[in-house]
Structures are given as C-alpha cells and as structure tokens.
C-alpha cells in the first residue's frame, strides 16, 4: 500500500500547481477575458519566486514575489485588451512568448543556485496514521490552501453579490454597463487576480515542487491549466478534481518507471498532454454542453457606449 500512498501524495502535489493556475484563469474567463499568457506568467513568476527565495531564504516572500510578478504581467495584458481593445488571443500569445524569453534571460545567473534545506510539513497526529497519513497529511500548506481557494471561489461566484456581478460581466457586459457597473474595472480586477494566482502557481513550482530554476521549467503546465478550465466547464470544484486527475497522469509515468514497467520514457512523458487532447476532444463532441456553461462574452471585446 505504500507505493499507492506515495502516488496519491505526489498526485496532490502535482495537482496543486494546475489547480491554483486554473482557478486564476477561471476568474479571468468568468469575467469574459481569455488569457493565453499563463505559461509566460508562470515562468516569470517562477524565476521571481526562486530569486527571492535564494536572496531572502523565506518561502512566503518568494510566493509573494511570484504572485506580484504574475499580477504585473497581467496588468500589462489587461490594459492592452481592456482599455486599448487589442485582440485577446494575440496579446495572450505575445505575453506567453515574452515570459519565456524574459525568464530565460533573467534566470541565467540562477541556474546553479540552490535554495536552503526544505522544511518538512505534516499535520500532528494525522500524519502518523497508516496509509492516509503519508497520502494526505504530509503536504506543504499550499496544497491545503489550494483546496480552501476552491471552496472560497465557489462561494464567491455563486453565493456573493460581487461574484454575481462578475458572472454578469462575463455573460453580458453591455447589460452590466447599462446597470451602472464599471465593466472595465471589474474585468481588470479579475485579470489581476488571475495573474496573481498563476504567479503563485509558478513560484510554487520553483520554490517547493522542484525546487530549482531551469529554463522552461513550467513545461506546458500553463497550457494544461488553460485547457483545464474548459474541461471543468468553468466550475471551481471540477477544476480541482481535474487538476488532480491531470496531476495523477503526470505522476503515473514516474510511478510506472519506479515499478520497472517497460514502457518507452517518451511515451510516458507525453501522457499528460495526450490526456489533455483526449479530454478536449471528448468534451467537444457535445458543443451544446460547452455553450450552456461557457460565459457568453468570453473572448469578446467590450466598447462602452457602443
């Protein structure tokens, strides 16, 4: 049973990265904004968090730096697409490409750096339980914070007035504007929140999940997080479950290799991306289901007074 417990623990750890980033992108898309720059934001946040961790030795400051870097890039994106009405898809791709190059340039001097000894976390009493202890109760606090974020976001979107306004902006910005709501400011706040969460996910990778800095270390997780929002039909609880599913597929390759399964390593490496494609194809077979759940103004620009 120990290998299974370790696989569950690794799945939760890997799924945390995808969950936090996907929740951020979900906030964006609930407001009607598509941000394809998640990969670049996470990379810049990863180097920002890692550099802060190297110089301060404080993981929480590193997380704050990563969230700040993600929010800063999201601010630039938000100004471009919300106020200057640039194309959301082209601007997002440009942001992603910029993040890849900028993080590689800034991170050159940190490729040989190492963080201090990593602290070990466990919940007293529960961590010593057989099977469930190592599987569920020996994680970094950020793993549990991701679960709390999911619950809070679900409550915010479906139980709070502010969440209702955010969803209204994503469904019909013209109607929200007619009722007197500042649509552009609401969308910008959503973009900033989404960027901060993507940044937090990037910093978690370089500070806790790895922990080190390597050029291109996000390795497509930003794109998987983007696909995960569609897979989850823009619902927070499904985002968390989907993140653990994709995290499990990612970690399964290492588990199988550790068990001596004779499968080409290239095939195992492509499993997460293959799973992403398969899931999107299956969902796309029912366009009505996507259309019912998708924010009606997703990806569409808003021109006040038009």
UniProtKB/TrEMBL annotation:
Sorted UniProt keywords: Cell membrane, Membrane, Transmembrane, Transmembrane helix
GO terms of molecular function: transmembrane transporter activity
Record localization: Cell membrane
Membrane-spanning parts: 6-26, 33-54, 60-84, 91-110, 141-158, 188-207, 213-232, 239-257, 263-283
Matches recorded under InterPro entries: ABC_transp_permease
Membrane topology, as annotated: Multi-pass membrane protein
UniProt protein name: ABC transporter permease
CDD domains assigned: TM_PBP1_transp_TpRbsC_like
GO CC terms in record: plasma membrane
Main location as per UniProt: membrane
